[in-house]
Structure prediction request, 691 residues.
Amino acid sequence: MSDVCSVTHSLTMTRVLRDVNRSIKFGTDTTDNTYRDGDVSASDSPGQLVRGNMGDHGEESLTPQGTADADHAGIGAGGEQHRNPTNGPGQGNDADDRQALAMANAALQEELQRERVARQAAENALRRGTSYLERLIATANVMILGLDRRGRIHTLNPAAEAILGYTKSELEGKNWFETIVPRDRYPEVWTGFNRMVHGGRLLQASESCVLTKDGEERYISWRTSTLIEAERVIGVLSFGIDITERVRTEEALRKSEERLNMILEAANDGFWDFDVANQKIKFTFSRRWAEVVGFTEPELTELARKWEECAETWREEVHPDDLPGMDRALRDHIRGRTPQYVYEHRLRTKSGEWKWVQGRGRLVEKDKSRNLLRMVGTYTDITERKLAEEALRQSEERFRVAAESASDLIYECDLATGGISWFGSIDKRLGVCMDDSLRTWEAFRDRLHPADRLRVQTELRQHLISGLPYSLEYRVKRDKDQYLHWTDRGTVLRDSQGLPQKRVGVITDTTERRKQQEQLAYFASHDTLTGLPNRWSLEETLRQTLAKTDRRHPRALLFIDMDNFKLVNDTLGHAAGDRLLVNLSQILRENLRDGDMLARLGGDEFAVLLEKATVDEAAEIAERLRRAVHERHFSVNGVIFDVGLSIGVVAISRHMSPAMVLAQADAAMYRAKDAGRNRVAIHDRPMDRSA
Prediction:
C-alpha cells in the first residue's frame, strides 16, 4: 500500500513540476496551464524528463532530455543561474527555483526506480509461481482438466493424456462433454456442469464415465471447483482419479453376491454365524436341511432360536465322542494354526439317530487387539459319503490283507496330487520305515537309480499319451548302495471324459532272478578257472572292433601257448596244472596295458587283443610277456618249473573275420613252436630260429 501511495505521490509531483518548469521557461502562470499527456515534464537530474504516453501499468513514462533544455532554461552545466539581460520581470529567483526543481526531480527518479525494482521482483515471483504450477500440473499423477464455461478444454495434463489416450493438442478447444462423455450419459453430466457454472457452486465431488480414444470406458472420481473472475464463473478446474478397477471390482462383487444369494436359496446346507464374544450362534437352514434332521421348518426355526440364545444347547446335539475333536479344530483355527475350520462329526436327528455332517468355517472379524469376534460357516450332510467311505475302508482292508500275503506289491498313484497308496509291505521290502519318501511319486522317484530316472519318466509320459499298458524295469535303492531290481507293470485309469486320473500297477522283485541271469551270462562269457573272458567273448569283441580298425587305430592279436604243459598235468595232476594256469594268467595280466584284453581260449592257450598297437609294437609286447614268464620260477607241489611260451602275432585288418584273425595268429604260434618253442613269431614274416 505504501508503494502505491508513493507512486501516486510521485505522479502528482510530476504534474506540479511540469507546470513550474513551464512557468520558468515561458514566463507563464502555472495557474493557467492544463494537464495534457505528451507535454514536456520536469528535467531529470541534472537534465530534464520528457512525459510520454501512459505505460503498461498506467504510469506516465519519464525520459532524460539532456542538458540542452537546461541551458535553454538558463541553467549552466555547473547548475548555476546565468543572468540574461533580456529576462523579464519576476526572474530574479530562477536559480533557487531550478535547484528546487532538480532536487524534486531526483527524488522522483529514486522513487520510480524503487517502484521498477519492486515490480520486477513481483514479475519474477509470478514467473516462478507460474513455472512451479506448470511443473506441478505436468508431473501430477492425477488428471487435471480445465474447462471454460462452455465446456471447452483449455488445460489437460500428461496424466489425463495417458488415461484418455488423447494428446492435449487433439482436445484443446473441443467440448469435453461432446468428445469424451459417452452419449448415454451426456445429458445428465452436461446438466450437472451447467448447474454448477450458473449456480456458482464452488466445490463439487462426483464420479462419471469417460470414453478413451480407443473406445474404452473408464470411471473417474472428480473434485471440481469453479473459477471466478469479477464475481462471475468463467470456467471450472477438475482433479480426477481413475477408479475403473475399483468400479469393476465392485461390480464383480455385486454379481458374485447375487450368485451367492441364488446358491444359498437353492442349497441343501445349513449356515451358521458364531458371535464368539457373546458365545451365541445363529443358524439359517434350508428346507432340505430340515428334512435331513427330521424336523419341520417351524420346528427347526424354533430350535435354532434356542441355540442362538445359548450355544451350549447346540453342543448337546453333537455326539459326545466328537466334541473333543470339534473343540480342538475350533481352537486351532482361532489361534491361526489352520486357514479354516473343518471338522466332521455326528449330529442327533429328531428320531435320535445320528447323521454325519461336515462343518466348515472361517474367521471374518476381529477387533483392534486381534481378538476374535465372529465366525461364519456351513453344515453339509455327508452321511452317504461316510457310509461309502466305511464300505471302501473295509474293502481296502480285505485287499490289504490279501496283498501283504502275496509276493508282489500293488500300488495306486493319483496323477493330480502325485500321492501313492501301497498295498503290501513296501517298507519291509526296502528296509526302511514307512515315511514321506514312500507316499508320493516324486519322493519315490528319487529312490530310483540315477541312471534309470529319466528313462522311467519318459516311458511313463509316453504311456499316458498312448494309453497302452506299460512294463518297466528299474533299480530301487534299498539301503546304502544296495539296489533292488523291480519290474513294474501297470496301466492308467481314466474318467468318463477320457482324462487320466490314476496309475495302478503291480511290482515284482526280480533281484534274485537278475543275479542268476547275470551269473549265467558271466559264465557264458568267462573262464570259470581264471575268471578271464573266454573264446566266445573274445570273438564277440573282435567282431565289434574289426570295423573300427584302420591306420589311425591299429590293432593286433597275440596267440599264446604254454610249452610242455601236458607234462605238468601228467606228472603232478590236473589240480596242479590248474594252479599253474591261474598263476600264469596273473603274470600275463600284470604285464599288459590298460585296455588290452586277455582271454583264455581253452587248455593252455591264451589270446591277447591289443588296442592301438602296430604289428611291431605287438611283437615287443609279446616278447615282454615271454620273458616275464620265463624268468619266473613256478613252484607246484614243491616242484620248480621254468615255463616257456610260444607266441604268434598277427596284425588285424578291418576286412578280416574273427575266425581268420585267430587262424593266422594260431599259425604264427605253431611256427614259433616249430622253430624251437619259447619264442615269438609274426604272421607272414621270416623268423630268427636262434632266438
Q: What stands out?
A: The radius of gyration is 58 Å.
